[in-house]
Amino acid sequence: DDDWDPAVGPGVVLRPHVLTWNVPAKAMDADGDEQQASKQHLDVDPLHDPAADEEDERWVAKQLLMPDSEDVRSTAAVLNCPGCFTPVCYQCQRHAEYSRQWRAVEVRNCTVDRSSALTMARGDATKYFAVRCSTCAADVGLLDDDGVYHLFHVLESLA
């Protein structure tokens, strides 16, 4: 039951009811000093820990990334399941030819279906097994005979 029916035609300009906003005057305490408590209250976020990002980065590098031959822990991306966004791989390498395909030696939150082997072409001796998300059972890639995961049904997030 709204009876507002503006007639907007040529020459009619609708304006907001507040054209400018002014900062309220600063409160004075009993001694006549400006109170800084409200400003400090706005500056400090009780839920933010400035050191948490660095701590989390060190934990991920130590717990989830394996060092290479030069003891460097790095990854091209963090890969997630497209069905439920669960992380499935923290350390991977982008395929040289196929930009949407990734290779990894370890996955998380995945199951390998070894009940039926897959092949890419007739006469190909290499067997592949389906890799599925443990959370939602979405297919995310294949595991080959050498233990290398080929992930291609995944969402990439920057590492």
Give a description of the structure.
With 159 residues, the protein is an alpha+beta fold. Helices cover 12% and strands 23% of the residues. It contains two helices and nine strands, in the order ααβββββββββ. The chain has helices at residues 37-43, 52-63, and strands at residues 78-80, 87-89, 93-94, 102-104, 110-118, 128-133, 139-143, 149-151, 155-157. A six-stranded antiparallel sheet has the order 3-4-8-7-6-5, with no helix packed on it. A three-stranded antiparallel sheet has the order 2-1-9, with no helix packed on it.
Please write out the topology.
Blueprint (H helix, E strand, L loop, with lengths): L36 H7 L8 H12 L14 E3 L6 E3 L3 E2 L7 E3 L5 E9 L9 E6 L5 E5 L5 E3 L3 E3 L2
Antiparallel strand pairs: 1-2, 1-9, 3-4, 4-8, 5-6, 6-7, 7-8
Query: Measured on Cα atoms, how large is the radius of gyration?
Result: 28 Å
- The number of distinct helices, counting runs of at least 4 residues, comes to 2
The major pleated sheet works out as:
6 strands, antiparallel
Q: Termini, distance in Å?
A: 52 Å
Secondary structure: number of strands: 9
Estimate the strand proportion.
Answer: 15-25%
Molecular shape = elongated
Helicity, as a percent range: 10-25%
Helices and strands, in order, run as HHEEEEEEEEE
List keywords for this structure.
three-stranded antiparallel beta sheet, alpha+beta, single chain, six-stranded antiparallel beta sheet
What would a concise description of this structure say?
It is built from two helices and nine strands, in the order H-H-E-E-E-E-E-E-E-E-E.
